[in-house]
Design brief:
- The complex is a heterodimer of chains A (about 220) and B (about 400).
- Chain A is α/β, with parallel strands linked by helices.
- Chain A is built from 9 helices and 8 strands.
- In chain A, strands 1-4-5-3-2-6-7-8 form an 8-stranded mixed beta sheet, with helices on both faces.
- Chain B is of the alpha/beta class and about 400 residues long.
- Chain B contains 12 helices and 15 strands.
- Chain B is globular, with a radius of gyration of 23 Å.
- The chains are: A alpha/beta (about 220), B alpha/beta (about 400).
- At the A-B interface, α1 and α3 of A face β7 and β14 of B.
- Chain A: Pfam families: OpcA_G6PD_assem (PF10128), OpcA_G6PD_C (PF20171).
- Chain A: InterPro entries: G6PDH_assembly_OpcA, OpcA_G6PD_C, OpcA_G6PD_N.
- Chain A: This is Glucose-6-phosphate dehydrogenase assembly protein OpcA.
Chain lengths: ~220, ~400
């Protein structure tokens, strides 16, 4: 079921969620986390699709906040909301907030009223990440913050910046995408006779954050001399 | 019918109309007066009711009066107000309406605690770490600016709604559900409430500023239409209270109420001590919080129990999950509006859900020292609309090694 709420507010969306729950019992409080996706207008669908897949593992409430990166004009301020539940939302419920003009100025207050009680908040920036992830309005309320270096203009510079501004809870997809690679490496190194690693050489595309990020550092943390 | 409060003829006309209704509709001389009037109008209106004979008690008939909050603005004015009302109506005929007590979820506190075996054994300091009672509104003072200035969040809702919720949560089991027994237990627990010594460390207050809230541009409290721009009235109030009984010794009750907060919600959260975790490595339970029972008073009325569960998979990971009871799911029957229920009780003369004057006095005794302290502290701290209040409220909890839940 998809409920469109044009020209609304966070309070309006919140009321609609309670009403849907009362009438249809569709929405349970049994969700274990709130995923906040911050993106740009027009890029909501790809993120929602990925989130719906993920929700089969972790039933959650997904809040997609999208706004135009530049416009902050107060006179054109409005929020278009949409709620998806049931078949249209995987195992989760999806709230889409498209903020225009000045309505996008305070991202935190847009989202706060819709977060699940007590449950942890995970923030995800599928596109451009904020300057300091953990200090951004949405980053501050999240216990886990997910960025994607490969979608930044300069992936490698972003990774360096991320490591400089790292706060517990910061995660980048570059690391997740290395999982198989790391498993291979660990399998090789974790066998007798445990010889010391004396050199590391990494091959790959120069601009790929996967190659540029942590594998050498990670591999070295325990075994390099 | 209309007329001003000082218009004798209007009250005489009211008396004639009511007498006519007695004849036409068979109301048999039973009358309830619902006084939805400003506090300063009480002396004149009650005097008019007395003068015109409307309040005169007769055998076989009843005269009752319903009064709304505020029941005074401190202990002194509450006593004055009470004196005025009780000079005309006997104490048993005065019904102080607190619409929270008419809510199903609030009455359900009694059922949850006393009809079940599951909760009462752990409802004490041995198991409970602390209790949080929250009443948050997402709106501002709006058109009530004139009324609100000088009143503030504590007098407006903590004195009545939140302290009543505290009393129902913390009181001992009454010997019966009749009004006397219930009020006795509430009064007992309210009289055991004490404030911490240092009020600067155990209370917090704030005023909402202007800004964007949930996609809407909102005005700050001081810029509201009709508001005194120098007002030091708080729109957010939080405090720690202790209850000096064996059941609750060492268990703080944290109360907070405010306007322009994250969302509209009223909840009582009983947060339990953490179980000993020696069987689990720290990493296995890092996602496990404290167990809690949350009574959702509004909206989405119901009860949530939060506890830990193993995450499916090869390893032992424990994470918070919730068990959820929702009124809307368990009962399809619509519950009556709080006011409907309460007005019916007035007509039936059934007083358990109405606080009596002693309770009002006791709650002012709790609040008066806080208000006095605040009145010496100047301007309250500003907080952004749509957030969960000022930084000092978070600091209050942090000092005790705790934090506010996100309701």
């Amino acid at each position: 079921m998809i409920v469109d709420l044009p020209n609304t507010t966070t309070a309006g969306v919140s009321k609609a969620l309670v009403k849907i729950r009362e009438e249809g019992g569709v929405i349970a409080l049994g969700r274990v986390l709130t995923l906040v996706i911050a993106t740009e207008l027009g890029h909501e669908e790809e993120a929602i699709e990925a989130a719906n897949d993920a929700s089969r593992e972790h039933p959650m409430r997904v809040i997609v906040v999208s706004h135009d990166a530049d416009s902050r004009a107060e006179d054109t301020a409005k929020v278009d909301g949409q709620i998806r539940v049931g078949g249209d939302a995987g195992a989760s419920e999806v709230v889409v907030l498209r903020a225009f003009g000045g309505a996008a100025i305070d991202e935190e207050s847009l989202v706060t009223g819709l977060l699940l009680p007590d449950a942890p908040v995970v923030a995800w920036w599928p596109g451009l990440a904020p300057e300091v992830v953990s200090q951004s309005p949405i980053g501050r309320m999240a216990t886990r913050r997910i960025t994607d270096a490969s979608t930044q203009p300069d992936p490698l510079a972003f990774l360096n910046h991320l490591s400089d501004t790292y706060a517990p809870g910061d995660t980048d997809f570059a690391w997740t995408r290395l999982t198989l690679w790391r498993a291979q490496l660990a399998a090789v190194l974790d066998q007798p006779p445990y010889e010391p690693v004396i050199g590391v050489e990494v091959h790959g595309a120069e601009d790929s954050p996967r190659q540029g990020s942590s594998p050498p550092g990670w591999g070295c943390s325990s075994r390099c001399r | 019918m209309s007329g001003t409060f000082d218009d004798d003829a209007a009250f005489d006309e009211l008396k004639r109309t009511i007498a006519q209704l007695d004849q036409d509709r068979g109301t048999m001389g039973n009358h309830a007066f619902y006084l939805s009037i400003p506090p300063k109008a009480f002396p004149i209106v009650t005097e008019q009711l007395r003068r015109s004979g409307l309040a005169e008690q007769k055998d076989g008939e009843w005269r009752r009066v319903v009064i709304e909050k505020p029941f005074g603005s401190d202990l002194k004015t509450a006593r004055e107000l009470n004196k005025v009302v009780e000079s005309v109506f006997p104490a048993d005929s005065v019904f102080r309406i607190d619409h929270y007590l008419g809510k199903e979820t609030v009455q359900n506190i009694l059922a949850l605690r006393f009809a079940n075996q599951l909760y009462e054994p752990i409802w004490n300091a041995n198991y409970v770490d602390h209790v949080q009672i929250t009443m948050a509104e997402d709106i501002g003072v709006g058109g009530r600016a004139g009324y609100y200035d000088g009143i503030g969040a504590a007098r407006d809702v903590i004195q009545n709604h939140l302290l009543q919720l505290l009393a129902l949560t913390a009181m001992e089991e009454p010997v019966s559900f009749d009004a006397r027994a219930l009020r006795q237990e509430k009064e007992k627990v309210l009289s055991a409430v004490s404030l911490p010594k240092d009020l600067s460390k155990s209370t917090a207050r704030g005023q909402y500023s202007g800004g964007w809230q949930g996609g809407e541009k909102v005005t700050g409290f001081l810029e509201e239409e009709g508001m005194n721009p120098q007002s030091v009235t708080e729109t957010y109030a939080a405090m720690r209270l202790d209850i000096n009984t064996r059941r609750w010794s060492g268990v703080p009750f944290y109360l907070r109420a405010g306007k322009r907060l994250g969302r509209r919600v009223t909840e009582i959260a009983v947060v339990f001590k953490r179980a000993p975790q020696y069987l689990f490595a720290e990493a296995q339970t890092s996602q496990l919080g404290q167990n809690a029972i949350v009574i959702r008073v509004q909206p989405d009325e119901g009860v949530t129990i939060r506890s830990g569960s193993k995450v499916p998979g090869a390893g032992m990971q424990v994470r918070d999950v919730t068990m959820d009871f929702g009124y809307g799911h368990a009962f399809t029957e619509a519950s009556p509006e709080a006011y409907e229920r309460l007005i019916l009780d007035v007509l039936l003369g059934d007083p358990p859900l109405f606080p009596r004057h002693q309770e009002v006095e006791l709650s002012w005794k709790i609040l008066d020292p806080v208000e006095e302290f605040w009145s010496t502290q100047g301007q309250p701290e500003q907080y952004r609309p749509g957030t969960w209040g000022p930084a000092s409220a978070d600091a209050l909890m942090a000092r005790d090694g705790r934090s506010w839940r996100r309701p």
